[in-house]
Structure formats: structure tokens, C-alpha cells
Amino acid sequence: MIMQYVVIVYLWLAILLYLVLGGADFGAGIIELVTTSRNKPGVRKTLYQAIGPVWEANHMWLIIAIVILFAGFPEIYSQISVHLHIPLLIMLMGIIARGTAFAFRHYDAVQDDMQHWYNHIFVSSSFITPLFLGIIAGSTFSGKINLEADGFLSAYVFSWLNWFSVTVGLFTVALCGYLASVYLIGEANSEQDKRRFIRTAKEMNIASVIFGGLVFLAAAIDGVPLVQWVFGDPVGLGSVIAATLSLGLLWSSLRKGKLNALRFHAGFQAAMILLAANYARFPDFIIVKGGNNFSLFDHIAPANVIAALGVALLIGSVLILPALFYLFYSFEKGLRTPSEKPGTISPPPVPSHHVPSDPPSE
Length: 362
Description:
1% strand, 362 residues
């Protein structure tokens, strides 16, 4: 039935948008983590300017994905909640700690030594959260979840604590840092900050390639047929080629100062990576030890539940998405000076001592 496909499309869109938008928010903390102490204050100012009004909204995509799994695919939701409850708990605690630290370090009425701890909590949780988000994602198709496990370690630890899942987590961290640095290039307040974010984007790009290679190496060690899924399938191979070509277009857009194109290509690369890793194994959502996989087609809720869920998602899109887009639009419009053109990277402001105090006489 058509609603089945509507729900599945919304599930993958929610996962993609959380990776692209929420991942960029996590990446902001990762950038702060790798920034030198001398440059941290300026970077923090830029990061807050960029993500301050919208960081809470990005968690909406995670909530939507969880609700879809809970209502539409209860068996899949149950298996993830049981076998991956430890990394799930750590990820959720990271989200809470990060949000709390982000709010208190800007709105705390008293500026004291606690600011030091808020900063440490923010950057550490910005690393831990995407790390375990990637670990959870890797665990769903690692084949390490053992439904017949009779011990605590085999049931609740080795299902996610393995080379493949951990390297997927590290790759996710690097990808989030890359997305954030690319998005923040256009938010830089000075030419020096812009160059810093460009350099960070290049470093995170290299880190993503390195950790991506480690993911394939770990897949070979743990017996995950990732090479076959990605390069043995025309869609997977095409996605890798498209992501590679888009990387060249991204740096070309940077040279031309096209901000919107720059961000589009970064998001497109993330989408292609997600497609390459998941298309060949679709509709299996969880691959378990022994081959009794959990499929989005076979382990789905009754038809009446799916119909109601699909209608709710469609109606919710009409109500929520325009408001969300307006939030981004109004925030960007408020930050842009009248001389700036949308979709471009504006030059750094002229220092005040270069501006004459009085207009020249005619």
C-alpha cells in the first residue's frame, strides 16, 4: 500500500536531515574541540551566532525517526532498544549534557569558574554524541546483534562494541565536523575566521577519507560485506562517484564565493554516503547474527496503524515545514547586512579606522 512507502520515505528523510542538520550542530562543538585556545573565543562567537536559534529545532528529526520506528515498526524499535540500550543511553545523555552546557554558558547570570566546565561539557558531549550515534548506526548492519545470546556481554556489549561499529562512529564524528566547518565558512565575521574554517574543512575532509577507509578495513575484519554493498551495486557505486564529483564542485563553489551551493554540495555528499551504505541492504533495517534480519517490509505495524501514521506525517509536514523554513530564513535575514547578497560569501568588514569620520565635501 502507498502509505507504507510514505512512512518509509519519511523515516529515511528524518535520518538524513538529522545527519545533515543535527550533525552540523554536533560538528560545531567538534570544531571548537580542535581549535587552539587562542582562537576559541572567536570561534565560539561564530558558532553561537550560527546555531544559537536553531540547535533545538534540529533534534526534531531524531524525534520523528524514533516515533516512526516506535509506531510503524515496533519490532525493529524493540530490538534496537534492547540490544543497543547502552550506546542509546550514552547518546541521549550526550544530547542532554550538550544542550544544558550550551544554554548555561551563554545565559548563566554569573560568570565564574563554571564557564570552564560548561565549555568542557559542550565540546566533549559534541564528540561523544555523534560517536555513539554512528556506533548505533553501524551496529544495525554489522551482523553482531545476537538474538540467541545467553550472556550480558554477548547480548548487550559485543552487539555494538566491535571494530566496525566503532569506526563507523569515528567516521560520523569526522563527517559532522566537515559539515559544520563547510556551513560555517559563510558565517565567518572576518577573513581570518573564514580561512580558519576553510582549513578546518580541509582537515575534516581528510579525516573523513581516512576514517572511511578504516570503516572498510574494519568491515573486512568483522566480516561485514560493505565492499559488496557499496561497489557491487550500481546505485551504491553511482552514489560514491556522485559524492566524489560533488566534492570538486564544493571547492569550486568556495572559490567563486557561492555559499548556498557550498552548503548544498556538503549536504549532497552526506546524502550520497547514506544512500551508498544502505541501498543494497534495503529493506533490511537490522542485520542480525544468523541471518534473521528485520525488514521494513516484513516487520511493519498493521495497515490501519501505518495509514494513520502516514496521514499524520503528511499533515505534520504541511504545518511544521513552512514554519521551520521561515525560522531559518528569518534568522539568516536578520544576520545579513543590507549590502550582502543571499547565497554569497561577503567580504570581511572594513575596519572602523579606515572609515572617514566625516563625508567628503562636494
